[in-house]
Amino acid sequence: xxxxxxxxxxxxxxxxxxxxxxxxxxxxxxxxxxxxxxxxxxxxxxxxxxxxxxxxxxxxxxxxxxxxxxxxxxxxxxxxxxxxxxxxxxxxxxxxxxxxxxxxxxxxxxxxxxxxxxxxxxxxxxxxxxxxxxxxxxxxxxxxxxxxxxxxxxxxxxxxxxxxxxxxxxxxxxxxxxxxxxxxxxxxxxxxxxxxxxxxxxxxxxxxxxxxxxxxxxxxxxxxxxxxxxxxxxxxxxxxxxxxxxxxxxxxxxxxxxxxxxxxxxxxxxxxxxxxxxxxxxxxxxxxxxxxxxxxxxxxxxxxxxxxxxxxxxxxxxxxxxxxxxxxxxxxxxxxxxxxxxxxxxxxxxxxxxxxxxxxxxxxxxxxxxxxxxxxxxxxxxxxxxxxxxxxxxxxxxxxxxxxxxxxxxxxxxxxxxxxxxxxxxxxxxxxxxxxxxxxxxxxxxxxxxxxxxxxxxxxxxxxxxxxxxxxxxxxxxxx
Amino acid sequence: xxxxxxxxxxxxxxxxxxxxxxxxxxxxxxxxxxxxxxxxxxxxxxxxxxxxxxxxxxxxxxxxxxxxxxxxxxxxxxxxxxxxxxxxxxxxxxxxxxxxxxxxxxxxxxxxxxxxxxxxxxxxxxxxxxxxxxxxxxxxxxxxxxxxxxxxxxxxxxxxxxxxxxxxxxxxxxxxxxxxxxxxxxxxxxxxxxxxxxxxxxxxxxxxxxxxxxxxxxxxxxxxxxxxxxxxxxxxxxxxxxxxxxxxxxxxxxxxxxxxxxxxxxxxxxxxxxxxxxxxxxxxxxxxxxxxxxxxxxxxxxxxxxxxxxxxxxxxxxxxxxxxxxxxxxxxxxxxxxxxxxxxxxxxxxxxxxxxxxxxxxxxxxxxxxxxxxxxxxxxxxxxxxxxxxxxxxxxxxxxxxxxxxxxxxxxxxxxxxxxxxxxxxxxxxxxxxxxxxxxxxxxxxxxxxxxxxxxxxxxxxxxxxxxxxxxxxxxxxxx
Lengths: 480, 480
Hints:
2 copies of one chain form a homodimer.
Chain A: E1 16-20, H1 28-38, E2 44-48, E3 54-55, E4 58-59, E5 73-76, H2 83-92, E6 97-100, H3 111-127, E7 130-132, E8 138-140, E9 156-163, H4 166-177, E10 183-188, H5 197-206, E11 212-217, H6 223-236, E12 239-243, H7 248-258, H8 265-275, E13 278-280, H9 283-295, E14 304-308, H10 311-323, H11 333-340, E15 354-355, H12 364-377, E16 383-386, H13 406-424, E17 428-431, H14 438-453, E18 458-459, H15 462-479
Parallel strand pairs in A: 1-2, 1-5, 5-6, 6-7, 9-10, 9-11, 11-12, 12-13, 14-15, 14-16, 16-17, 17-18
Antiparallel strand pairs in A: 3-4, 8-10
Helix pairs in contact in A: 2-3, 4-9, 5-6, 6-8, 9-15, 10-15, 12-13, 13-14
């Protein structure tokens, strides 16, 4: 286990968990049980529900007070009205923290419900119990077997996340997971009644298992503290922030969602500028940046070599890279000359973009490798964006009957590209466009899986790759 | 057949086609034959190749001169050096137009090859033969059975395209095809030696089968003529332009690709502003706009109702819509009150965004329909963006064992949404995120197919939908 003496580390290492309001059907309580079992939690898991004797193979207890022995951590899925009683029982069981999936507190805009939230906070403070939430999905920590949603990647990894929205956290985990990202700790914290964005950011900043911090934040509880914490975190690690409520309409929605006041975007952007945190505008952009920092942690300069197939495609790639503030330098004469030795003259270009069809010939794999080698060795190229034809709908050339299948071809391409990165010493990022057919989907999943094993960054579009690489370059200029 | 007395209409109605240089293996000539047969061409198709007697079940002729009878249209896949002889033979066969897939002319930057291109042009002009290309894929017209690439949608439809790049044209056709778009005429015109972007734009402007014009353009041959043609076209129909070479790096790539001078983006943007053509920055954005104009031709105002699941998700949706210049008005009190009658208070919102979980219950379909009805009937809502949970990785609630499969559920949701559009009289657009798993891919393909049958617009993200709807609204403000 990764040592961490941060005062919140205990949250991620409970010996026992009670899911209070564990549902008998397909409700959320059932999902928590399933997710924690799936993640391989090695402590004791107690479903609590007066209507069941057994749930998912586990003994079910009628109330928290009935659970034998101590309970470290409670996941509350019961309605608001039942919460006060459960809190008292929790104190009796030695509970140190309660995560409230329970919603319907202050975020409803109802004064009485806001008052109930305050009362729960006051009472748990008296009892020395910390609150995650309410109105959240809580914690995921593959290392210790915590999870809030079935289907999250089970292997630990270096990406941390603190998210005010549980669904967005799950969405980011799965979207990034399909591109090889793995997570240290994922925290969904909802209304932030007790533990706030700053608490968790501070934790992730100190956490040795976390190398990259991602976040989805709607409102800030304590401005000065947030500024100081973000500054500390961003100096230590890349911090990527998706700000919910960046418009007036979005701000109205954050009030309904987590009772958060979203604040002015200009203020938030000034905070990012001053601290070095990086704001993004979508889940996809967040995953793009995390992917770039994970797999291309060092971008030495702005020179991008484009290697791909198709003239119009190459033009658009060059435009997207330049629009992102990177460069597409003309390759040195010597490199062009060497490429021209084996690249047919018609329908191609060796200047950069390198628009080549050598991959289609019988000697394709060797010539593509040679192309990547020559481009990687050019002194004005810092990163190669390789438009391998993965995910382009029906492939233009189907494989020979005796040759490898489309899926097999995709895997081989990922392996060959991974080798090229290691052999030629320059980062290569690859593209996998959203597939249009089931067959290409299969190939694209195979490519992504092998690419992750090869530590390759993959993006859905050149524009996304270029914008993310530019952010990596900018961060280096600021902090190195 | 759609009547069209434009002087270029003959290009799309050849009685016979010769593919000169039809390849015996998997080369491009073989692809043209396959594509034209697949598209159901009812005229005569002649492969020409001195090395074969028969290709794909068709008699093959050693030279164009050997083909029996007249030939209307030639697709040239032979090297540059063999072109002059073939042109002479074409004249003897009564050929009216030649499409040159043949590349390696002026676009190589080689003076001798540029001179060869000029000579071919001069000689075909003398002979009264029109040229499409060179360095292009040519024509696709489902109505008459022309195609340049296997796998293009076979049904005719109202979207026209003129593209300087063949691969981009194919890419747009297939990407849009998966969202239900169908095409009238698709033209890839490469170096534009004879027939230019203005010729084809003028044709599509007059073509009664074309209701929406899309284009990928790298360089402009004749500025004043282009301006006049674009003005005529944009006044008649929505014209969407993807400009290749919008940056200096992209401009260098257009020279290598089609020998085109890309020009200044500011000039191009001024032309678009003055004519009402709409410039986009990617293939995806082009398809988004074509989808919006195809399925939501009238957007009455900027008021968007968001219906979906998940608070954080709803916040981001509201942000994306406001950032695109549309509005997310608070629903009238009366609408909110009626929604609240059947929407649980915890974890939801009925203000707009409508963040609702009613779809998950046993009475889900009816309550979702009721939700859509109430939002559609709100006087301040012009379009609904419905975030049906399609394509979100593993679905949060898997279907009951006895219930419909995930694929079946997806189809039912598309049918129900289509009915809601017809019954409640307001446009509803839906979202399908790029799927992460093979199972969700299957569901998402099923949803898209049914959505197309229901005339529903689908987008990959709220931001894309909002930007496209804004463009529809803007065009109406300008031209109506």
